[in-house]
Amino acid sequence: MPTRDEVDRIVDGWSRERPDLDFSPMQVLSRVGRLARHLELARKTSFEASDLELWEFDVLSALRRAGVPYQLSPKALLLQTLVSSGTMTNRIDRLVTRELVERRTDPNDGRGILVIMTDAGRERVDAAIRTLLVAEHELLKSLPKAEQERLSGLLRKLSLDFD
């Protein structure tokens, strides 16, 4: 049995004080929350090393995953990043100012706009994802690959109800 962690101590205290309640969800979700804070710090550090903010990484990574020529409509970007159209417009404006993306008229629809990642944007997002993956591997290093895959499957099963 692994050593006890802070969640065990918290749950023990609550269980002692409120034996009438079932604290089993806390065993899982408090740990997920604590891990999320570690992941958030790893992401912040990784993105800062590439001179990107989290939201910039989100937009650039959506473009990068789209494949060559690394372009999407603003609507496709907001669907992937789950922000409002006003927020996306502001984000695109700021990325254009930083020369990480360009806006171009959609050649298939003269009224439409495409957001296209620049070479500088691709270099930044590629560096950020490399750095992030090193940090994420470090966060998971105590779990063998088979346990990581099992955990991934369990978390996928849990998250399907929310996505």
Could you please describe the fold and organization of this structure?
Strands 1-3-2 form a 3-stranded antiparallel sheet. The protein has 163 residues and is mainly alpha-helical. The chain has helices spanning 6-17, 24-49, 54-65, 74-81, 85-97, 119-139, 145-159, and strands spanning 71-72, 101-106, 109-117.
Percent helix: 55-70%
User: How much β-strand is present in the residues?
Assistant: 5-15%
Major β-sheet profile: 3 strands, antiparallel
Query: Which descriptor suits the 3D outline?
Result: elongated
Low-confidence runs (pLDDT<50, min 5 residues)? none
Number of strands: 3
**Which value, in Å, is the CA radius of gyration?**
21 Å
> What class would the helix/strand composition place it in?
mainly alpha
- Series of secondary-structure elements, N-terminal to C-terminal: HHHEHHEEHH
Look at the structure and give the mean pLDDT. Answer: 93
Determine the N-to-C terminus distance.
Answer: 33 Å
What is the number of helices? Answer: 7
User: What does the oligomeric state look like here?
Assistant: single chain
Strand order of the largest sheet: 1-3-2
